[in-house]
Amino acid sequence: MTDDPRDELTQKLKRTEVQRAASSIPGREIVQVLTEIPVGVSSGWHHHPGEEVGYIVGGTVRMEIRDATTLTLNAGDGFLIPPGVAHNATDLGPEVGHMLSTYIVEIGEPLSTLEP
Predict the structure, then answer these.
(1) How far are the Cα atoms of 6, 28, 57 from residue 108, in angstroms, in the given order?
(2) How far is CA 37 from the centre of its chain?
(3) Domain assignment of residue 74, given as a range
(4) What per-residue confidence (pLDDT) applies to 6?
(5) Cys staple from 88: which of 5, 64, 67, 77, with CB 3.0 to 4.6 Å?
(6) Distance CA 115, CA 48 (A)
(7) In 3-state terms, the chain is what percent helix, strand and coil (to 5)?
(8) Does residue 94 have a cis peptide bond before it, meaning omega lies within 30 degrees of 0?
(9) H helix runs in 1-116, sequence order
């Protein structure tokens, strides 16, 4: 999935789709993605067409969420991003950040969209 045109974050980060399945919520699907963020790299401000439920597998990531407190997340920490809310993830090092995110999103919409 690293070159999926429906996921604009693949332009900056290595993203591997782990699984995709229909949701019990009509019009939604569940997509699970493992994201690698190189040291010092930011995802860029973006949003998703549904919830993002995430877990930091490795590294330290600064998660900026529009109109919310900035989080510093370490391996073992979870996070939740509401639908359509812009956010930006930056790996703080010293190692590559690894995040496992589960998205509950609208079918047919791009998984992520960069903010202008």
Answers:
(1) 9, 9, 28
(2) 10
(3) 8-114
(4) 62
(5) 64
(6) 11
(7) 5, 55, 40
(8) yes
(9) none
Question: What pLDDT shows up at residue 7?
Answer: 73
Give the whole-angstrom CA distance, residue 58 versus residue 99: 7
- Based on the structure, what is the number of domains in the chain? 1
As a residue count, the chain comes to 116
Q: Is residue 50 part of a domain?
A: yes
90 near 72, Cβ under 8 Å? Answer: no
* CATH value at residue 59: 2.60.120.10
Residue 29 to residues 21, 56, 73, 110: CA-CA distances in angstroms?
A: 6, 22, 26, 12
Rounded to whole angstroms, the maximal C-alpha distance in the chain is 42
In a domain, 3, yes or no: no
**Over 50: is that where the pLDDT of 56 sits?**
yes
| Tokens matching residue 59 | 């590294």
> Do 53 and 82 contact (CB within 8 A), yes or no?
no
Cα 62 to Cα 13: distance, rounded to the nearest angstrom = 15
| Higher per-residue confidence, 32 vs 10 | 32
